[in-house]
Amino acid sequence: MYSKFNSLKAAKHVFDQIPERNQASWNTIVSGCVRAGLHIEGFELLREMLVQGVEPNIFVFSSLISACNKSDSLFLEGIQIHGFAEKAGFLADVFVSSALLHFYGTYGYMTAARKFFEEMPERNVVSWTSLMMDYSNNGDPEEAIEIYCRMRGAGVSCNQNSFATVISSCGTLENELLGRQVLAHVLVSGFGSNVSVSNALIHMFGSCGDVKNAEYVFDRMPERDTISWNSIISAYSQNGLCEESLRIFKKMRLANSKPNSTALSCLISSCSTVDNLRWGMGIHGLVVKIGLDSIVCVGNTLITLYSESGRFEDSKLSFLEMSDKDLISWHSMMVSSVQNGQHRNALELLAKLCRTSKIRNHVTFASALAACSVPEDLLEGKTIHAHIIRTGLHENLLIGNTLVTMYGKCGMIRAGERIIHIMPERNEVTWNALIGGFVENEEPQAAIKAYKSMRKDGISVNYITIVSILGSWSAPNDLLKVGMSIHAHIVLMGFGQDDYVKNSLLTMYAKCGDFTSSNFIFNEFASKTAVSWNVMIATNAHQGNGEEALQLFVKMHHSGIDFDHFSFSGGLAASSNLASLEEGQQIHSLIIKLGFGSDLHVANAAMDMYGKCGDMVDVLKILPEPTSRSRLSWNILISGFSRHGYFKEAIETFNEMIQMGEWPDHVTFVSLLSACNHGGLIDEGLSYFSSMMSEFGVTQGIEHCVCIIDLLGRLGRLSEAEKFITEMPVPPNDLIWRSLLSACRNHNNLELGKKAAQHLLELDPSDDAAYVLLSNVCAVSGRWEDVDDLRRKMKSSNIKKKPACSWVKVNNKVSTFGMGDKSHPQKDQIYAKLEDLKQIIRETGYIPDTSFSLHDTDEEQKEQNLWNHSEKVALAFALINSVDGSVIRIFKNLRVCGDCHSMFKHVSQAVQRTIVLRDSYRFHHFNGGKCSCGDYW
């Protein structure tokens, strides 16, 4: 009697006074402990009861199993209860078995739950519904619906909980058609006016984006409970209708329905954008005022609110201030860390969680694996994988899909492929992860093979599959061999009008160089979105059509489509590739005007643009504070310093990056080694190369090896360079041999040069650089017959040398010049200016270096050839047409020769002008007779 009134202390006192305790007495006191939440005491009494030889009844077993569900630390006790129940023969009781079924589902062990269910001798509506709810709660709504279908086939009548669960599962899958079919069964069964079923319908319609029908159900409910109000608020929240959520919340309060933690959590979720952050912060204040800030679910949504709004520190503070945390709290903070690029923080959270007594589930490990998305984190990813196997969660579908994704992003896609073959079940997400991994790892043929396996597996292809496949192809041959066939296949499958697919087709055709087709598809769009414009701008920018990209940027602006950070990144990339500082500055001004200046993605693109256009001063002006920099920000800064000859600053920035806790990646070391290369820092370069793998876990790639070869070659250590090639961790490619051949030209090593050229021509018999560089080596060595022979071979094979050209922007117009160009309207003034410069700088000590004139002519003709170089012609034009004292910026498509470099130094001193020359390798800042490279390039 006392236990029914929760007077447990009195009940225990009475129990202790009983001289002879029978089975009913023991069962009553144990059940009382459990109902009062004293689970541990209940288990202790059970043990004492068993010692006394008293057998518990089925109600005690059911109560204790339910207690295990309510705590995340009583899993082992639940297993023991299962053993006791089996030994006592209580598993035949449908109530005990249903409680055990729900126990396994609560802890996420759905394989064990399903096995237990199939072995149950008797099942009732509670058993079926329990299994449905467990699948639904563990993120497998498809299986919940499958159980519902089996339940109906078995002739078991559904109750309101059954219908509510299956309708909610339809909502989770966003399958409104299936939900409406279930609704027909609901109406036939007479549950149409049931509150819990109506609440599930509101949830289902809201999840499917059908807010109108969600409102319809809500408005016609004969009675509403708190869940009803929460459901409609959630429906608005899910569809981004923040103001409607707040309006219905106001009605809820006017209806004297006291808001609970669920309602406030939904409201906070509806405000989880930068634009609605102020409303979210207002709700946060209300939460504190009414004393619900200690509720776990509210704290969880606050973490998400601040994370989604880009305020990671506030998100972290909300997490730390939570007095009580559940698994969702930890998961939300891990996801927040991943979203904000704080991968190490996510992994540290996993380690802390593992040290608590909380049970980890499949979502825990999926969240942690998302943090292991770069090769540097592969070891951590493998460790988590091992832990997953140890905990028995490796057969979970979500875990399998996340592992495939993780291995793909870490460059170990073959490991991901092996996982797929041992997964007990696969869905479209599984195959899309594998196909995307192959695409990301540049294995297009393997991606096609996986696509075929997916269809053979009976899995339906969706737009994500198509988009991934289209991302595999980027060369003209790819378009003819595969791309156009896939396009035809897309049309046959009915995906031709899907906007995501059309945007991917735009990208594929543009990347493969077929801008006619990409423009045709673009012009066929009924209504062009920002995504469509961004695709066209970005592909044109990255394929070298910078002017077209900027024109598209202007057209997008005139069309009335709002720019986003992708638009600005594309426009800035186009300015970078054109080295057009003025256009880049105009776009940057627009960025600041429209309020995108604080966007880190845009700031990085602006930094990159200024760096590539020769203005490091502005790079430093917009550089974020060290604590706010992403890895990309650090990489751009190191690369900029390297490109402009500030080698000391590049190394200092790298050291600062490490001190700030940001881990370097593949790109970081390319920039760092490039800085050592351009600065002749041989010892530092070799040291950084060896530390890549040993200290930072970064795999040494071909780009890093090219830097080392170039570094050794520039210093004349050609034998070491040759030895390095034989010991490289990756096979040498054309860049390696071209770098070695260039070094042989600079240091007059004909024999090694021939070897390098032979390797180059084996890789590509039509490589013009191999012939030109070897010809230069022969010319420097005075082997003119060999030079003539090489030129005849080039002519007979129809191989043409890439022509040198330079360009300069003066008065908002770009002028381009070739070698000895006489086509410009001001040609007479240009060459007269060159003659004047020649006389002026000879007086300052300039002596022509005719070793760079690689023709068998007399010295006078060689000198004349040198003065025809395109960068000299561009310089004369700029001096004629620019304002005195302004900076002259010249760009050349090939590396500047030694004589032009010397001439530019003397001119900068003679005319007192700063001249910035960007060649194909780096920037040279000439001022007062000196160059930023220190004459080492």
What does this structure look like?
There is one protein chain. With 937 residues, the protein is mostly helical. Strands 2-1-3-4-5-6 form a six-stranded mixed sheet. A hairpin with a 2-residue loop joins strand 1 (805-810) and strand 2 (813-818). Helix 43 (718-727) packs antiparallel against helix 44. The protein is elongated. Residues 1-8 have low confidence and may be disordered.
Task: Describe this protein with a few key phrases.
51 helices; disordered N terminus; mainly alpha; 67% helix; 937 residues; 3% strand; 6-stranded mixed sheet
Describe what is shown at a glance.
With 937 residues, the protein is an all-alpha fold.
Question: Topology of this structure?
Answer:
Layout: H1 8-17, H2 23-35, H3 39-51, H4 58-70, H5 75-88, H6 94-106, H7 110-119, H8 125-137, H9 141-153, H10 160-172, H11 176-189, H12 195-207, H13 211-219, H14 226-238, H15 242-254, H16 261-270, H17 277-289, H18 296-308, H19 312-321, H20 327-339, H21 343-354, H22 362-370, H23 378-391, H24 397-409, H25 413-422, H26 428-440, H27 444-456, H28 463-470, H29 476-493, H30 499-511, H31 515-523, H32 530-542, H33 546-558, H34 565-578, H35 581-593, H36 600-612, H37 616-622, H38 631-643, H39 647-659, H40 666-679, H41 682-696, H42 702-714, H43 718-727, H44 734-746, H45 750-763, H46 768-780, H47 784-796, E1 805-810, E2 813-818, H48 827-843, H49 859-866, H50 870-881, E3 888-892, H51 898-910, E4 915-918, E5 923-927, E6 930-931
Parallel strand pairs: 3-4
Antiparallel strand pairs: 1-2, 1-3, 4-5, 5-6
Helix pairs in contact: 1-2, 2-3, 2-4, 4-5, 4-6, 6-7, 6-8, 7-8, 8-9, 8-10, 9-10, 10-11, 10-12, 11-12, 12-13, 12-14, 13-14, 14-15, 14-16, 15-16, 16-17, 16-18, 17-18, 18-19, 18-20, 19-20, 20-21, 20-22, 21-22, 22-23, 22-24, 23-24, 24-25, 24-26, 25-26, 26-27, 26-28, 28-30, 29-30, 30-31, ...
